């Protein structure tokens, strides 16, 4: 881990209607750090991940990922940046129902010319799948996978490009205790191997001691009404 910031957020504000508002005056996460994010449902944890990844643009404020000012990029530039640099494990998986598990893992490579499918990429996809216990199930479509297996496919897809930033939204939420530890081991190992930063939203407080730091959303002030 280094002192160089992978994530730098200043003056962030986003409002959605009258019922939701998010405000973060300052947040800095060093490169290589493993950080858990906790807080009540509806506090904005998933929204923060969406802003960091460039899926959402805030109403105000600045977000820098590495050397890139994400909030200054166009929609297309944010998509390209995300494909190259960010692995996102979505809470609801975001799997494509008509594709096999194997093709879902490779799916980001089909969406952008920022990534290219090579033999090495295919071999890495197979190795990742085997590491999470998906061998023998890569031809199955999501409808024929358990919730935990869908979660593992989503994790493999996020890790495949060796991203410098891994965003995980309840990545262990659909797993039994033994598999929670396995998945967290894999996320940590892959992050360390790539020199990546890991930011993980979780409601499982039993996992918190394994992280370098815990960010509690209760520490952020609400946007004034």
UniProtKB/TrEMBL annotation:
The keyword Lipoprotein applies. One of its GO terms (molecular function) is transmembrane transporter activity. PROSITE patterns: ABC_TRANSPORTER_1 (PS00211), ABC_TRANSPORTER_2 (PS50893). Residues 7-225 form the ABC transporter domain. Pfam families: ABC_tran (PF00005). Gene3D superfamilies: P-loop containing nucleotide triphosphate hydrolases (3.40.50.300). Keywords: ATP-binding, Lipoprotein, Nucleotide-binding, Transport. GO terms for cellular component: plasma membrane. This is ABC-type lipoprotein export system ATPase subunit. The lineage of its organism: Bacteria, Pseudomonadati, Pseudomonadota, Alphaproteobacteria, Rhodobacterales.
């Amino acid at each position: 881990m280094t002192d160089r910031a992978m994530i730098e957020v200043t003056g962030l504000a986003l409002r959605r209607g009258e019922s939701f508002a998010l405000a973060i005056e300052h947040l800095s996460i060093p490169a290589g750090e493993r950080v858990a994010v906790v807080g009540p449902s509806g506090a904005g944890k998933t929204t923060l991940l969406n802003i960091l990844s460039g899926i959402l643009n805030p109403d105000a404020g600045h977000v820098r990922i590495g050397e890139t000012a994400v909030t200054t990029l166009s929609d297309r530039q944010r998509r390209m940046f995300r494909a190259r640099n960010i692995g996102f494990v979505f809470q609801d998986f975001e799997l494509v129902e008509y594709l096999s598990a194997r093709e879902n893992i490779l799916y980001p490579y089909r969406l952008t010319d920022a990534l290219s499918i090579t033999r090495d990429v295919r071999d890495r996809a197979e190795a990742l799948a085997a590491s999470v216990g998906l061998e023998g199930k890569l031809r199955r479509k999501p409808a024929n996978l358990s919730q935990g297996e869908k979660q593992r496919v989503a994790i493999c897809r996020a890790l495949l490009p060796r991203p410098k930033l891994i965003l995980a939204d309840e990545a262990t939420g659909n797993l039994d205790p033994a598999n929670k530890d396995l998945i967290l081991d894999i996320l940590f190992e892959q992050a360390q191997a790539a020199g990546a930063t890991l930011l993980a939203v979780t409601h499982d407080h039993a996992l918190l001691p394994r992280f370098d730091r815990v960010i509690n959303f209760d520490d952020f002030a609400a946007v004034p009404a």
